[in-house]
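Attaching the record inline, Q. Sequence:
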Amino acid sequence: MSQAYRYVRSLAEEIGPRGSCTEKEKKTAAYLKEEISRSGLETREESFMAVTSFSWVFGLIDLLFIVAVLIFPTSPNWGLALALFAFLAFTLESSTFPFLSVLLPKKKSQNLVALIPARSKPIRKVIITAHYDSSKSALNFSPKMVKGFRRNYLLMVGAMGLEVLLFALGALTTLPKMLLWFLSLPGALYLLFTLLTLIHREIAGQYTPGANDNASGVAVLLEVGKVLTRIPLLTTEVTLVATGAEESGTNGALAFLRQHRPPADTYVINLDNLGIGRLTAVTQEGILGAKASSPELLSFAKTVAAEKNIPLQTAPYKLLTTDGTVFLMRGYPTVTLMAFDDKGLLPNWHWPTDRAEFVNPQNLNDAKELVLGILRKLES
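Structure, as predicted:
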């Protein structure tokens, strides 16, 4: 059994489900700190405050739209204003820019940060990230519904946009307001349905073992760190960042950026859901507005895969945000490495079946070699 796979089993089975800002997440941080320190690296634990679930902020946005529909017949201007505010909040939160979430209650989480200095004067910096918390399950991640996740998400966006359009027509024109209100009801019902699924997630959802998402990425991060500690790069400074509270809204990556403000030319390699399926270098990220990954890092990934005979594909990722999305949205040259099944989905995504037994150890080894190869190409 490889050491990387042992890490996956330790996280998914011995520690188990580790929701954002929970005691299990804190226990995981202590475990990872000890493992990284064994390599001889000084590991800093950096605390931050984060919301405990993305359900709260997106549920609040759905609720604002529903309230806008309720008040529209008597107060069309207020209905429009509320719908516009909710749509702005949705757009920003979906693009990793906190807006409404800054007002919500928070709990403590933590990042683990370890610096591997260059052997000589550093001329470039690289950040390697992987989140270690696991998500709650929800109905829309069930095996039957997850295939339509992006379609359903875009339907929700369409429903929100339709509400804004109808309310603008009602507030700014002489069209019959009751007719426009009636036309807004289907969209409002869909948003009510999404609100109820979020409520159900918080009441009935269970934190998953998180073997693929994302013990697999953390395992690769640890293994890469071991190699680089033994043989540091000559002119490249590497920072390992194991992030907490990613599943509640990429909070760990956001906290790291607030605390460190790395130079804009810092390269970022994000590791997420690597353990099952075909290894993939993501070409663009974002469920609303896609941001292109670093062409340089993508080129290196393909070259390394060809040289080392690693089966690698390139594909866009247009589902929920990752830590990589955070850096991409702020202009950092970034690539996220993932693995997808034959249908282009993340296997066992946010579902109780995300167990260690389904993780392929070869995927972990291939991902480690791919990351090390990309770093060496940057050196040259």
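The radius of gyration is 22 Å. The first strand starts at residue 43 and ends at 50.

More tomorrow.
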